[in-house]
Sequence to fold (388 residues):
Amino acid sequence: MYSPIESIFHQRGIEALTQGDTGRAPPIFHAHSLAPVRVSLPPLTTGGNFLSIWPVREWPEPGLWLQDGYDSYAPPLFVLHNVLVHGSAGILCVGNAVVAESLAHTSPERHGYRALSRGIALPAAAHAGLRLSRGIHITVLAGAEGDYDHAMLDGLARLAAVPNNYLAAAETLLVPQDGACQADMLGFLDLPPSIAIRPVGLTETLLIETLILPLSVGGEAAFHPCVLDFFHGISANVPPSARRLPRRFAIDRRGPHRRGLRNETEVLQALVRQGFVPVRLEELSLAEQVCLFRQAEAIVAPQGVGLANLGFARPGCIVVELMPDSRVDWRFRNLAALAHLQYDCVLGRARKPWRPLDEDGAGTEWEISVQHVAAAVAQAVGAAAKAA
Fold:
């Protein structure tokens, strides 16, 4: 039974909604899509040795490590009319339908809706009596907006797929009120002066007359080259840092509330002996993070959101990612390949039983061979020196 004080929206894919019902105009117009691009993936010098003999769990599907390239996502641009925009995740409701793609990385508890078997229910009070926001608006709202990499790659980076004439015509840009570092990112982007930034609250609901929706620039981590335009746009407006920043560094993810790489201290000690400086990204401003990655020669890091900054690194930079066998995720390998970085990885062992992939893996404990990490880093640095 549904509550009479709720509005029910049935879940439908966005492509289906562009077809419309018989005799009616479609509620969503597919304006265009960027052409997909083939991106080369160099072989994994060290990582391949592990992956050829270890049982691992790859995301989003097994066997991807063997591929020599990926076909990028073809970022589509949609135009929606008279649409409800719900919450900082940008849940989209048109007519009696909720756009299925807009529910990604959302949760009923956080974003203020009730999940149904075929859709969602919104409190009627959330949108009763709403005034129509006239004009043209652009949305980069997305779920998991509190996570740095999602706020960047699944959120603001979508602006790279919006043509300049659409940007010039828009009156407002909808962004999450509490999006990670988004205020700083927006400050470094060259947006038209006529566009106003409109933060949207966690469970706030808007009624928009015309909404421009760049759906994604990466799909399932298949990043389109336009993503680099986003990174270069920010980097071009960040001045050199007044601080002395290391050119070879290891991201330090240790902390009192983190349970991840159990022997991270030993790994960092070995990397210090190889000339790397431990860095805690949370202690740096966005501008300092941009500068850090922009001038880096070599980066070693456990799998984590900080690697979203790889888009700022210059071609040829060495990247060695450390990851548990319970979730071998190629999101940052693909980003590194797109940016022409020298990427490799080293695998560690996670405690079993492994958590389901759809659960938060932040608390998963794992351990990695210090000797394997040191050897992989030495090999990568040595190969780069020979090639120079």
Observations:
- The longest strand covers residues 76-86.
- The chain has a mean pLDDT of 92.
